[in-house]
């Protein structure tokens, strides 16, 4: 099994992540709290109350973990294509796989990465939703002191299965949308590249950016549900499952609830995925 794709996926995931984390914090807050009127309001309040650091809450952990998750995604994607088409990454622009093969490989990568992503994503969401400013003498400490403390508290209070809260919603969110992600990328690259040639850097950037936006647009309704189920610990209201969470959210807040965070998700998705695909392609060309 070729491993360069896993390494390239690791590095490119880390680069994309740093660029996108501030957008991600605003998104998670908008989706799970009702105190903000919109993106700008959330940004201003976060900055006033917590300074720039507020936007980077919960980042150290995803930078290590998302890199692993992206490595699994791109590694499994590329190796599934190898199994389906018997072509390596280097040969794929000359002998392109069909879109069905790309979709199947994307869904497979998406499905497998969920099991690495679920606990990391849960911890990230819980830490991002702590809105207390950095510890001041006399003020009560935040509930979780950091990722390790957060993981340990969840295990203690909710059992190890607590770390997988929301994992089913995450599977539903990621399996088809990662298929869409790779199909959009391939389609846009092939549209603007003469047959058989490698796409240019500009093409890779734009195709990667739009692959991110398209897949996030489709994923947003389940993203909202996933984040809410992850926040529903023993003390918050508990949903009976994905459908129950959907029905209750829609009843209480209207259908618009499924699109919370769509604008911010798209604004984040372009730079993150443009950089992820560009670094991924370049690392592989450089090693190949
Ligand atoms: C499929 N779905 C849209 C849910 C996720 C796509 C993930 C791509 C990238 N790691 C990012 O964070 O944007």
Automatic annotation (TrEMBL):
| Alphabetized Pfam families for the sequence | Mito_carr
The record's section on SUPFAM superfamilies has:
Mitochondrial carrier
UniProt KW keywords: Membrane, Mitochondrion, Mitochondrion inner membrane, Repeat, Transmembrane, Transmembrane helix, Transport
Start and end residues of the Solcar repeats are 1-83, 97-191, 199-286
Q: What is its main location?
A: mitochondrion
The family annotation for this protein states: Belongs to the mitochondrial carrier (TC 2.A.29) family.
| Protein name in UniProt | Solute carrier family 25 member 45
Which organism does this record belong to? Ursus maritimus
């Amino acid at each position: 099994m070729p491993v360069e794709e896993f390494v390239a996926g690791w590095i490119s995931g880390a680069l994309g992540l740093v660029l996108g984390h501030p957008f991600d914090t605003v998104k998670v807050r908008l989706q799970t709290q009702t105190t903000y009127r919109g993106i700008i309001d959330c940004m201003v309040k976060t900055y006033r109350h917590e300074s720039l650091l507020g936007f980077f809450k919960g980042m150290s952990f995803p930078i290590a973990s998302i890199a692993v998750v992206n490595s699994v995604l791109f590694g499994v994607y590329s190796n599934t294509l190898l199994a389906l088409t018997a072509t390596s990454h280097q040969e794929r622009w000359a002998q392109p796989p069909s879109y069905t093969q790309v979709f199947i490989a994307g869904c497979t990568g998406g499905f497998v990465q969920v099991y690495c992503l679920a606990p990391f994503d849960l911890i990230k969401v819980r830490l991002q939703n702590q809105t207390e400013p950095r510890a001041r003498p006399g003020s009560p400490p935040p509930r979780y002191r950091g990722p390790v403390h957060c993981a340990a508290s969840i295990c203690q209070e909710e059992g190890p299965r607590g770390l997988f809260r929301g994992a089913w919603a995450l599977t539903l969110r990621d399996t088809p949308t990662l298929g869409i992600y790779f199909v959009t990328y391939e389609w846009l690259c092939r549209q603007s590249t003469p047959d058989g040639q490698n796409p240019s850097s500009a093409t890779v950037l734009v195709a990667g950016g739009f692959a991110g936006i398209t897949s996030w647009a489709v994923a947003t309704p389940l993203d909202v549900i996933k984040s809410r189920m992850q926040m529903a610990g023993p003390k918050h209201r508990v949903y009976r499952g994905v459908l129950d969470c959907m029905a209750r959210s829609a009843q209480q807040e209207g259908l618009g609830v499924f699109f919370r965070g769509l604008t911010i998700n798209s604004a984040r998705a372009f730079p993150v995925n443009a950089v992820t695909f560009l670094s991924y392609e370049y690392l592989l060309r450089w090693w190949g």
